[in-house]
Amino acid sequence: MPKILLVEDNEMNRDMLSRRLQRKGYVILTAVDGKQGYSLACSETPDLILMDISLPAMDGWEVTRLLKANENTRHIPIIVLTAHAMVSDRQKAFEAGCDDYDTKPVEFGRLSEKIENLLVERKLS
Amino acid sequence: MNLQNLSIRRKLIFITMLTSSAALILSSVSFLIYDLISFRRQLSQDLMTQGEIIAFNSGAAMAFKDESAAAATLSALKAKEDIVAAGLYSPEGKLFAHYLHTEKSLPQSLPSHSQEASYRFDKGYLEVFQSVTMNGERVGTLFLLSDMRQWSIRARRYSGIILIVVLICSSLALLLSSKLQRLISKPILHLEDTIRMVSSNKNYEVRATRFYGDEIGRLIDGFNTMLSEIQQRDTALQRANDELQTSTHELEVEIIHRKRTQDELLTAKQAAEQANRAKSAFLANMSHELRTPLNAIIGYSEMLEEEVQDSGKVANVHDLKKIQTAGKLLLSLINDVLDLSKIEAGKMGLHLESFDVSTMIEEMVSTLSPAIAKNANTFQLNASDDVAMMRADVTKVRQILLNLLSNACKFTDHGTISLNVDRSAFGGQDWIRFQVRDTGIGITEKQQENLFQEFAQADVSIARRYGGTGLGLAISHRFVQMMKGRISVESVPGQGSVFTVQLPAQAAVEQTESTLLGETGSGSDSSPEVKTNADTILVIDDDVAVRDLMSRSLTKLGFRVVAAASGEEGLRLAKQLRPLVITLDVIMPDWDGWTVLNKLKADSDLAEIPVIMVTIVDNEAMGRDLGASSYLIKPVDRERLVTLIEKHRAIRTSTLAQASAVPASWPPKGHKSSRKSEAVTIRRR
Lengths: 125, 685
What we know:
Chain A is built from 5 helices and 5 strands. By secondary structure, chain A is α/β, with parallel strands linked by helices. A 5-stranded parallel sheet of chain A has the order 2-1-3-4-5, sandwiched between helices. In chain A, α2 runs parallel beside α3. By secondary structure, chain B is α/β, with parallel strands linked by helices. In chain B, the strands form 4 sheets. In chain B, strands 2-1-5-4-3 form a 5-stranded antiparallel sheet. In chain B, strands 7-9-10-12-11 form a 5-stranded mixed sheet, with helices on one face. Chain B has a 5-stranded parallel sheet with strand order 14-13-15-16-17, sandwiched between helices. Chain B has 20 helices and 17 strands. Helix content of chain B is 57%, strand content 16%. Mean pLDDT of chain B is 81; it is low at 510-532 and 660-685.
């Protein structure tokens, strides 16, 4: 089963999203801040990362940049989740090297679609 | 000492003295002269009389030639002091007897011959000749010589008296004039003092005292009148001055007051701006804070719904859906408020990009389909073929149309909602017109007035019945304004409404866009190759001036310009860079433009790149045959060149947009499409 790392500091969001994804059959790892997220990503090498942007300790942009700079984690697709629906945020997301982008509150159907797409794509490549 | 420069007092004394002394001296001297003349006459009369007596007495002696008797007679003259000599002459004229008062008296003073009886004055002496007769017969001549001693004494005495009198009178005159000159000098001196006081102290209040009613008195009167006049003017001047000072002071106070007010206003303005910023920040923050719990509400209710459906307890699904709907409505309200606060804070920028209008509409309509279906409405889309591409802020255009269409859905029941899109040209530019038409409840004219204003729903009852913040149209209105477009409404209550939005097909270059371009140019760490090349123009020209000119004018518009001096170099760069557009000169050394064009079109990798011929050779047919996309004749019309390049960029962007999910200016690496997946999701629902 694909392994997804969810980096999210808000407990409810984390709980809800992880449960729903688990119901879809994914294996879910959770991290509550940027630092934990980064170390989990390095140690567990998940198949995909869902990354909240406003995180304590280290923000989502920073974690994304670090992961994309790391030889071992560069291949992991990252979907950034942000509360700001600004175009500039989207741009920032792609500049930081994210693979996709979604706004909160998450529309679960759309997000799971994106996850599936990325996973399929990765399998193909 | 000059007489003229003497003080008046001295002048007066001097004049008085001179006048009185002159008069006195003149009168005294004339009197003296008269007196001395008459006295001398009297003396000569006396001497004549005496002579007659002596002549009578000496008649006998003369007749008898008695010398001693004659001398004795003469010696009687001894008593007379003033007779210094006397003589008796014979009829023949010879000196017979003589008398000398003193021995010292000179005998030669006696004339040697007798003369006829007479008298005369000679050198201070009086001489008298007298005939001596005896019985009527002339017997001799008497001579008397007087030194007029009495006269001299008298003259001396009189002179002395006159001198004393003159001295006394002069003293008296001096005394009097000294006293009396004050009559004239005192007022004048006083006047002088007053004048000095006025001129030195600038005190116009003093007045000269008028002592007498004479000319000086009148002069003083005149002076005083003049002084009062001056004083009045001075006072008036002073008053005017004071008033001026007062008003100047008032003015200064006013200025200070105004300055203070201005400062206060400025402070107030700053405070207001600060407050507004704080408000916007608060709203942005709050909406974020509101979204987090909403996130949970929507998410958990969705999750619950899934679980409930899995477990088969369908009865609760309806309630859960209500929670979801309410949550989503609340979310849209928060989004509206956030948008408006951003607009008001001036933080809402335009992010212009070229996009395909029909694709955008297609996506939007699929999003809307549940709303259309909700009130059993039917939807019609009429888009004319020439609409194609437009350049605008796609997010905002989408939001405007979503708002108009969801309003139409909300206020129409069992009706028809249509969206018409067409392109037209007026006012020197192309416009895209979106028209949303419904057969709903409509809007009265009165309601239309406030339709596009914030927080102004057509009717309070509507808010209760249909929900919504009333911000949607206000936001749409602001967005349309930002893109320099127009929004209008026509409606007949009970029959339906038509909302028309007109937007420029090429939205004006706003500051926000140039900022965006700048950002794109500099911060290109994600995919520099693709990004920069989307804006790269390759200029192939052997003329350095043309290369420079093109490079400068196109760089200014945000393009990256690479220049090649020869066809060979141009071809190499084209392979390396895959530019957006190539501009190509014809007349060049080695390979000419036709050769280069041939080679470009023969290469399957480069054939797609549009080539704009920029040349003085007028052979457009040749260019077209060889595959050039446009043909410009030098000197180049810059506007035209830019338009062509923009057109190619738009085409390129749309091609990329179709191939990629995100807007073409920043296609992500190794990932196909988020927008496409979005569309797929919507279609599935």
